[in-house]
Design a protein that fits this description.
Layout (H helix, E strand, L loop, with lengths): L1 E2 L3 H14 L8 E2 L3 E6 L1 H5 E4 L3 E3 L10 E2 L8 H23 L13 E6 L6 E4 L19 H4 L9 H11 L5 E4 L10 H10 L3 E5 L7 H8 L5 E5 L5 H8 L4 H14 L3 E7 L7 H14 L3 E6 L4 E2 L2 E2 L8 H17 L2 E4 L6 H8 L4
Parallel strand pairs: 1-2, 4-8, 8-9, 9-10, 10-11, 11-12, 12-13, 13-16
Antiparallel strand pairs: 3-7, 4-5, 5-6, 14-15
Helix pairs in contact: 5-6, 10-11
């Protein structure tokens, strides 16, 4: 069965055919832009460039890295050559998925049946750590997986801004940048990055600790309704924040979040459930009060499955303990009651937990 449908009624017609009429999903093909098949958002839409490699995601061991040589000082040509290799692989992988062939992505929790464009459409850029000026942070979260990198001096000649410029010229479909890894507010040339995003009308997804308030960054985020700033607050009190972040800046962060909000920025908060730190009802209620006070649009929930403690990787059990899942369920119920959107970090959740988390959605 071949269908040509407008975007606005694609899902409704598809649901009617498969659920009411009993048509097998695998029998339906599309003449339009999208097709129903196995796929992944990152494989279709995302590019991540660091001083070590380029890739489409960090879902180990399923992702494919295109590595630079150890210690290589990168030129613009080096970056473009590696992007060429990755894009050849991306197109080949998508073609295999279209043909029902097995790929390196099989087994990954992010691979699922859904509507995907026939060709890749790279819209989102992530720039990794350790370009010119290094990767720095004014926080010291004990679970951070960037601690080693943050302490490493960079010999690179290309800056984070240079990678943004190169990417903008390579991908004419880009419309979003993710500013993360280290603390973006103290990046060299952060003002130039803001100028670039506003010139090209890109949205910004800023992962920040909000210890600093940057007027230029606030202007750039507020200028695009799709932009937002995400802060891993992980607490609702100064005492707990200080234990997790190991800096005493909770009051300043809350004050700055109010400033960003007044400027018109969309604010997302994150809560990583950490045993013996913030996995208690009292702390969660205080955090939810902050969400209400700031009128946040979105909350991301997670557990510390990066496995890092003081920069050292530890084996972590992907299945959420039952006591933690009960708290997770409580937070979801309250957030839905408050009208706040929520999600969870799929790479930090086991396949067993994904199903029962999805059942919590209204």
């Amino acid at each position: 069965m071949w269908l040509t449908l407008a975007e606005h009624n694609l899902a409704d017609v598809y649901k009617c055919l498969t659920e009411r009429e009993g048509v097998s999903a695998r029998r339906i093909r599309f003449f339009g832009e999208r097709e129903y098949r196995l796929g992944c958002f990152n494989l279709q839409n995302y590019i991540y460039i660091s001083s070590d490699n380029v890739k489409t995601c960090a879902h180990y061991p399923y992702t494919n890295h295109f590595m630079f040589e150890p210690g290589q000082i990168l030129s613009e040509k080096d970056v473009i050559n590696k992007l060429d290799q990755l894009e050849d692989w991306r197109r080949e992988t998508i073609k295999k998925l279209q043909n029902g062939e097995k790929t390196s992505c099989h087994g990954c929790s992010a691979l699922h049946w859904g509507f995907f464009t026939k060709e890749p459409h790279v819209e989102i850029l992530g720039v990794g750590p350790n370009f010119k000026g290094g990767t720095k942070c004014n926080c010291d979260c004990f679970y951070c997986n960037q601690n080693t990198i943050i302490r490493t001096k960079s010999n690179q000649e290309l800056s984070n801004y240079d990678i943004h410029r190169i990417s903008a010229e390579y991908y004419d479909t880009l419309d979003t940048t993710i500013l993360a890894d280290g603390e973006p507010t103290i990046l060299p040339k952060i003002d130039e990055i803001c100028d670039l995003t506003m010139e090209r009308n890109w949205s910004i997804q800023l992962n920040t600790n909000a210890i600093l308030y940057k007027e230029k960054l606030a202007d750039a985020i507020a200028s695009n309704s799709k932009s937002f700033m995400a802060v891993a607050l992980d607490s609702g009190s100064r005492e707990t924040y200080k234990k997790i972040k190991r800096v005493d800046t909770y009051d300043r962060v809350i004050e700055n979040l109010h400033k960003y909000k007044e400027k018109g920025c969309n604010i997302f908060l994150k809560y990583i459930l950490i045993p013996e730190y913030n996995d208690n009802l009292e702390e969660i209620i205080k955090f939810l009060d902050v969400c209400s006070e700031l009128k946040v649009q979105h909350v991301t929930l997670s557990q510390n499955l990066s496995g890092f403690v003081d920069g050292v990787k530890h084996k972590a059990d992907p299945d959420m303990p039952e006591s933690m899942f009960c708290l997770f369920t409580y937070m979801v119920a309250r957030l839905q009651e408050m009208g706040i959107c929520w999600d969870f970090q799929i790479e930090f959740v086991s396949k067993h937990d994904i199903d029962r988390i999805e059942k919590l959605r209204k």
